[in-house]
Amino acid sequence: MAGKLLLWVAIAWSLFQLWYASPLPFMLGFGVLNDTEARSIHLAFALFLAFTAYPAFSSSSRRHIPVGDWVLALAGAFAGGYLFLFYDQLAMRPGQPTTLDLVTAGVGIILLLEATRRSLGLPMVIVAIAFILFTFAGPYMPAVLQHKGASLSRFLTHQWLVTEGVFGIALGVSTSFVFLFVLFGTLLDKAGAGNWMMQISIALLGHLRGGPAKVAVISSALNGVVSGSSVSNVVSGGIFTIPLMKRTGLSGVKAGAIEASSSINGQIMPPVMGAAAFLMVEYVGIPYSEIIKHAALPAILSYVSLLYIVHLEAVKLGSRPIPREKVDRRTRALRSGLGLAGTIAVLCLLYYGIQAAKTIFGANAPWILGIAGIALYVWTVWYAARFPDLELDDPNAPIIKLPRAWDVTRTGLDFLVPLVVLLWCLTVEQMSPGLSAFWATVSIIAIVVTRRPMLAWFRRQAISPAWSAASDDLIDGLASGARNMIGIAIATATAGIVVGTITLTGLGFMMTEFVEFISGGNVIAMLVLIALVSLVLGMGIPTTANYILVATLMAPVVVELGAQAGLAIPLIAVHLFVFYFGIMADITPPVGLAAFAAAAISKEDPIATGLQGALYSLRTAILPFVFIFNPEILLIDIGGWAHLIWVILVSTVAILLFAAATMNWFVTKSRLWESAVLLICCFVLFRPGWVLDRFYPSSVEVPAATFLQKVGEAPEHERIVFIVQGLSLEGEDVRKTVSLPLGHPQEPRLRLRAQGLGVSPLGDAVTISDVAFGSYAKRIGLEVGYEITAVLEPADRPSRVIPAAIALLVAGGIAALQFARGRKLKAAMA
């Protein structure tokens, strides 16, 4: 009782602080908080969540916690809060730590490693300890990795008492807004949205051949929109989809592999990607809305090809779809048309209605829109109250009843409110990820608290039990959100040790030389090596920690060596490359966590499930190599709607051909030479420029004197590619090709300054005079004193449509051959 009383006091105090910090309506809040207000909100929610956890540690659960663990928890809390508690003293004596400083730092690192062992297992601990040993063993390392080492005092200071190690960018992003996204997804699922999305997937796809497997794919995509965790995606959806797939003839291994393959892709599915995607905001230096734009097409292609794979598996098995309501084709077409038209109409009404309200009401628009949003929410709950609540499908039932899509949709229209809030804030209002997640979380908290009582009131049922159930849901959701965050927070903190080691020892520069030596300067070999490193590091450690490690170690290497090889790789392509192979580690044996979770549900061998899932996931593994060499798939350098549509169509056909080749089945079972031809067609469609490069140059060099002119003439968000040369920090001659994005058109120097670059023209030469710290220009390896020697422009050569069209014709010929062979086979069997 005392715990609940403290909880509601904390809620009241938090809401008071929230209102005081931001006098905007809760639902939409189009304002931008300053730093003080943001800190107030973080403090309010920290206390809110702390008091929320109180009931969980009361009564019986508290008696099971050993006293030693309480001591470790208090010591860890003190070590973690040391920078906050003694900030002024630490700032007044930089580089001169006291004994208490060093003891606290040492205890904190030891406790962090123990927390890592308990929550993530030994692999991550071993990685961290290896890097710690590397810090002290520098003088004894091989020549390529040798450094002067560090004293214990310097190591502890660097790792714990400043923001270079544990308390660096990764942990800062994790605690600032990743937690809000995790909490948002947890509360949304607690409200019933997870089951609602699952049932919609069943209703829309259950009638297709291999319907349950396609349900697994689509539901994982929908779950990935709000989750971003592959293992939780497997567990939450797999308990329904894996038994469904097994009942339609798929083996347990393939059912588990399909669920695991679709679940890991949830981390690359915008708008709420895996936690590592939010770190890209800091590492790449672009807004999260831009990351969403770049990641969208590859994620969609990956899911479309997986749908095709499960369709081919169903064709091989000859499986039958789930029976659905018998309706004539005209009525069914009318229903589908009305559903699609209604969805488009509602989206247009939302977008243009909100924009019109902002134009008409000006500063009062947030209030008007907030009231309208609340009214819309109340109406959707009233409408849902007219129908029975959704029931969970029993995966062991002998007969599957296929629901109608609208019958499912109408019971949870209110679940779209927080999703609309999140997407609007992220993509339209261009708010920060943290602020967007904050308002979305506020809206879902309001739904969790009010939905059950409102449903009871509209149905004329007792409200008191509904209030009690809603309160329990809120507490359970907050507690689950905090638990789900533990692994991410500890992973990012431990990865900070690795980052601190790199900055302390200069390991990043060593890795450039090491990878260059191993790969011989070959970009393909370098990318394969980095992909293998990502997979190995990902065996048993979370994707987020994997991304931090490889992005810190290897991403600069790819940019630098690619530039020196004459390949201007966009920075976002490099980081997505690392990110993709980080999530691939969740399914790759011997330690694929998502495959292990799926195998536990299907009761099959986890290694076999992982191997089958890795085969299915090959289509995800080739995409990073594609967008390194063809950034158009990331929607970079798209020159209008016609170009965009062409890129989408060609990329879709290419990934489907790759899936058909790896499954050895196109129209019918493929012969070996047919699969080989399909792979060649896939390659040509993904990289049509490669064929033309054999006969024509891809670019021409323009004199550097035209650099500022080209910057001024470039269209909005265009990239300029140029060659620089000069002396590196190590005194070596450097010549490399770089690609610099340009924002809104303006005076050329200002346009360059927005990317952190300053230049000084002198006659025909252009010299880099300034590179801002932490800017995009700095991240791609530009340095003061480099000379711009030439600007690269596309060469005049035949259109890339020609080789792509030839590849399409060849693929069509293979389809015609297989279709004729299939007809002969059916005739012979008849």
Structure write-up:
This protein is mainly α. Among the domains are: 74-162, no CATH class; 171-320 and 372-486, no CATH class; 638-698 and 797-830; 700-794, no CATH class. Strands 1, 2, 3, 4, 5 and 6 form a 6-stranded antiparallel sheet that branches. A hairpin with a 2-residue loop joins strand 4 (757-762) and strand 5. Helix 10 (169-190) runs parallel beside helix 21, helix 21 packs antiparallel against helix 22 (463-505) and helix 24 packs antiparallel against helix 25. It starts with a helix and ends with a helix.
Question: Unreliable segments (pLDDT under 50, ≥5 consecutive)?
Answer: 13-63
**SS class:** mainly alpha
Distance between the termini: 75 Å
Question: From the alpha-carbon coordinates, what is the Rg to the nearest angstrom?
Answer: 28 Å
Q: How many β-strand stretches?
A: 6
Dominant shape: globular
Q: Report the helical percentage.
A: 55-70%
Number of helices: 37
How many strands, what sense, and barrel or not for the largest sheet?
Answer: 6 strands, antiparallel
Strand percentage, roughly?
5-15%
What value does the average pLDDT take? 79
Which key phrases capture this entry?
830 residues; mainly alpha; six-stranded antiparallel beta sheet; 68% helix
In short:
The protein is mainly alpha-helical. Among the domains are: 74-162, no CATH class; 171-320 and 372-486, no CATH class; 638-698 and 797-830; 700-794, no CATH class. The chain is 68% helix and 5% strand.
Helix and strand topology:
Elements: H1 2-21, H2 35-52, H3 59-63, H4 67-80, H5 82-85, H6 87-92, H7 99-120, H8 122-136, H9 152-161, H10 169-190, H11 193-205, H12 211-226, H13 230-247, H14 252-264, H15 275-284, H16 288-317, H17 329-361, H18 365-384, H19 405-409, H20 416-428, H21 433-458, H22 463-505, H23 507-519, H24 523-537, H25 543-553, H26 555-564, H27 571-584, H28 593-602, H29 606-616, H30 618-629, H31 641-663, H32 672-686, H33 688-693, E1 699-703, H34 707-713, E2 719-727, E3 733-741, H35 748-753, E4 757-762, E5 765-771, H36 776-779, E6 787-794, H37 801-829
Antiparallel strand pairs: 1-6, 2-3, 2-6, 4-5, 5-6
Helix pairs in contact: 1-2, 4-7, 7-8, 7-9, 7-22, 8-22, 10-15, 10-21, 10-22, 11-12, 12-13, 12-14, 12-16, 13-14, 13-28, 14-28, 14-29, 15-25, 15-27, 16-31, 17-18, 18-21, 20-21, 21-22, 22-25, 23-24, 23-26, 24-25, 24-27, 25-27, 27-30, 28-29, 31-32, 32-37
